[in-house]
Amino acid sequence: MKRLLLSLFAVLTIIAVHSQTNLMLTNPVMEDLLKGNYPADTYEPATLINHPDAIFADLVESVSPDSLYSYLVELSSFENRNTGADTTSATFGMGAARRWAHSKFENFPAAQEGRLEVGYFQFDQDICGMGQHRNVLAVLPGIGPDRSEVVLLEGHMDSRCAEVCDTECMAHGIEDNATGTALVLELARVMSQYAFNRTIVFMITTGEEQGLFGANAFAEYAEQEDIQIRGVYNNDIVGGIICGATASPPGCPGLNAIDSINVRVYSSNGGLFGASSSRLLARYSKLQYDENIAPIVPVAAEVNIISREDRAGRGGDHIPFRQRGYSAVRFTSANEHGNGNPSTPDYHDRQHTMEDILGVDTNDDGQIDSFFVDFNYLARNTVLNGSAAAASAMGPATPDNFELEATLAGVRYKFEDQAGTGLYRLGIRSFETETAYFDTLVTVTALEDTLSWLPPGTVYLMSAAALDSNNIESHFSEETFANLTTSTQEVKTYKGLTLLQNRPNPFDEATTIGVMVESAIDYKTAFIRIADAQGRELARYEVELNPGLVQVVYGYENHRYTPGTYYYSLVIDGRPVDTKAMIYAY
After folding, report:
1. Is residue 272 predicted with pLDDT exceeding 70?
2. For residues 494 and 577, is the Cβ–Cβ distance under 8 A?
3. What is each CA distance from 56 to 51, 76, 227, 369, 390, in whole angstroms?
4. What is the 3-class SS of 417-459, one letter each residue?
5. Euclidean distance between CA atoms 327 and 230, whole angstroms
6. Is the predicted pLDDT of residue 2 greater than 80, yes or no?
7. Distances in Å between the alpha carbon of 478 and those of 226, 323, 403, 464?
8. 3-class DSSP state for residue 154?
9. What does the DSSP assignment read for 242-276?
10. 8 A C-beta contact, residue 58 and residue 292
């Protein structure tokens, strides 16, 4: 690991001799588009597809494994896409590859009324002996009042072999990172037929392998020009399913392990109390997929939020954006074939070698029949990105000034909502769980209220999102915390009071929940609260806690939810006394 870090430091020190200069867009229309300086109706399509249900369903239907395969075959044909590789050949090198990507972007909107503006983002910097470089961009202009806000989907196209500036080797770079490039191209093809409130940028970068230069140049340009980037979704190594022997931790379990379901999402963690905006964007991505895509696909991805910004000793094109204060995440396959350091003795993995190819011909018939990329897996990751970016581009404004206060009655929250939606979701975590995702999601209608059902004795971290009329969330507000462990809470205890396990458990049609009261207690109100695994209240039963057995029946007619784990709590005078889990099996 130390050798890998020193190697990366040496590469950056050698190459980053000159800073990036002459940052410019080759298509002059793009600057106004990125700043929202155009009439909203300029890019309205003749047929408006802008309802979330229609967009999510069409993403699932339209993202094509065959299209992704065709892009990978074409990207492989350029043989070497090193940042410093030939730019004049029509068939070899970076120039041929980026012109091909540019033409693909240009051809997509032919069926979408030319709504996708295409061009290059150009910058000057000495990288591998080449002085000028270009990212390839396609801009889908927003048609709503927030069109000056930008959602960015990116993947780097440059490839490499063991030597970081080898411009002649056969660096096909299929997993790293033709897969990310193909994902961005496919989303441009599919999503350019939709219309969004905000602007979406599809960007294919260069210079990632030598120091994240293409992403850094555009992030610097965005900062200089005050472009309002709402979120960055970076895709790097998103189609391979086979584990190498040296995969960077946290990663796959061992050589040749297969995983075509799980995907990792990396983001900067933030401080001890309160997640960063990038971590909140990672949670937002998982939430959109789990709630809007997973229920309508035959095989769903498992989205895993990793509690670090990238793999150990590694980096990606999301980092320059995060460094400038933008929310940015990285999507990566669960399994990757190597740690990208082929100079290490006995390195036999494919990453950063000439072996990072589409697959092999096992029966010598001239056709690849054993692939290193799973095209259905790549398609799932494409839909995952599309659902997150679409929600980012559609959702309402993020609530402001979110505050928490620990009180004797529980946790008091309040925030402001400039969108005035009237419906909100609170993302809640217990500090003790150390989870990278939310422990609980609660839907509320009040801008200020007290959550009295949270068990005392811990620190809670929360943030808020607004819900629009189509139940699409805004991004989550800044996360803050409330401490329910202080001695001022004076938590009242009740002796001789027992919340019993529900019977039967698991249950299907109905279950009985009981409380054994041994002697009279002093209280004002009491109820039993039923909630799902996300903390959403499903039912509430007021009870009188007289000595003896107190029972309520929670039935199938109340339930009608999916099988799984649910929770019930005894709440006295606004404070939860005890909580137990129950299983719904039908």
Report:
1. no
2. yes
3. 9, 30, 27, 32, 8
4. CCCCCCCEEEEEEEHHHCCCCCCEEEEECCCEEEECCCCCCCE
5. 7
6. no
7. 21, 17, 9, 8
8. strand
9. B--TTPPSS--SSTT-B-SSEEEEEE--B-SSSB-
10. no
> Length of the chain, please?
586
Q: Is the confidence at residue 14, as pLDDT, over 50?
A: no
Token pair 């975590």 is found at: 429
Residue 351 has a pLDDT of 97
3-state secondary structure 25-73: ECCCHHHHHHHCCCCHHHHCCCCCCCCHHHHHHHHHHHCCHHHHHHHHH
Determine the angle formed by the axes of helices 52-62 and 375-394, rounding to 10 degrees: 160
Model pLDDT for residues 27-86, shown as the tens digit of each residue: 999 999 999 999 999 999 999 999 999 999 999 999 999 999 999 999 999 999 999 999
Out of 3-12, 18-27, 89-98, 313-322, pick the least confident. 3-12
The amino acid at residue 143 is I
pTM of the model: 0.83
Quote the pLDDT of residue 19. Answer: 73
pLDDT of residue 432: 73
The rounded distance, in Å, linking the Cα atoms of 180 and 259 is 18
Higher local confidence (pLDDT), 556 or 34 = 34
Q: Is the pLDDT of residue 471 over 90?
A: yes
Q: Read out DSSP for 190-252? A: HHTTS--SSEEEEEEE--STTTSHHHHHHHHHHHHTT-EEEEEEEESS-SB-B--TTPPSS--
What's at 536, amino acid-wise?
A: R
**Overall average pLDDT of the 407-412 stretch:** 86
DSSP-assigned letter for residue 399: P
| Partners of residue 424 on adjacent β-strands | 444, 466
Q: Which two tokens stand for residue 159?
A: 């490839």
Helix ranges (DSSP H) in 78-226 = 93-107, 179-191, 213-224
Q: Find the Cα–Cα–Cα–Cα dihedral 576, 290, 436, 457, rounded to 10°.
A: 0
Closest CA to 240 of 152, 332, 106: 332
Q: Is the dihedral of CA 190, 193, 198, 203 positive or negative?
A: positive
